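Here we describe the complex-level prediction in full. Unlike the single-chain runs in Section 2.1, the two entities below were treated as one system.
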Amino acid sequence: MPDVFVSPDEQLRDMPPVLPEKEPVTEVQKSALPGHSHNVFSSFSLYPDDLDFETKEDNEKIILMLRHHPIVNVKWIAITIVLLFGPTLLNIFGIFGMLPLGYSLFITLAWYLLTFAYAFEGFLSWYFDVYFITTMRIVDINFLNLINKKVSDAEVTKIQDVSYTSGGFLGAIFNFGNVFIQTAADVQEFKFGNVSNPEKVAKILDDFMVKEK
Amino acid sequence: MADLFTNGLNVWFLVKALALVLTGMYLVFAFVVIRQVKLMTETLRVGFEREVRSLSYLHLAFAVLVFLAALVVL
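The structure predicted for the assembly as a whole is:
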């Protein structure tokens, strides 16, 4: 008789391991891994090359780099595309015709400047909001506003519980969701939000936890 | 005095002054964006730093262009 309820922990334990038993060293070994990527826009990269972050120790290796799934960019990209038509619409509706010479040029330039800034900020906030799982810890790098950042980390030995959600229509189609990590560190809960392959991420962390126990 | 308001300080002059103030403030913001990108690329090295820095300088150049447009064209 099939199990009526399977706890998330049991589900994770039943999954095949995501990481190889032996750490890949050569590029050939890394390339053979599904999830290893050289794409600078990748949102899920196992054993990434040429990546570094400020507080990384010399003997620390990055196992997984994560950022939000690219689908989260659709909102700002769609708004940017709509904004690009703004000056054309102002022209069609005759607004520019009512203004003195030169004002239409200035408004068009200013409009495109604001559109560029909006798109650039959208890209930056996606591209530089990154999570790392390293051989020593989990790291969440978050830029709060224009000049402040927040870097949270917890040693992998302090992970107490891992769970994930992959709900929602888009989440189910594009395979992304949230991973929640409870730790015994200063930051007690980490949330890796809208990341690709949440079950694989949870599995990697769960394997760490089991290894430490 | 009344002549100054009807001829010299007309509404378009005020609009130009406002545009200059706003674009001037935007220039400061463009410098802050450069500072932000510098902070981001120093914190994370993910292989796309040069392009992102170039975009931040392009944004500043665009902001300067709009400021000059406010100064010259309006």
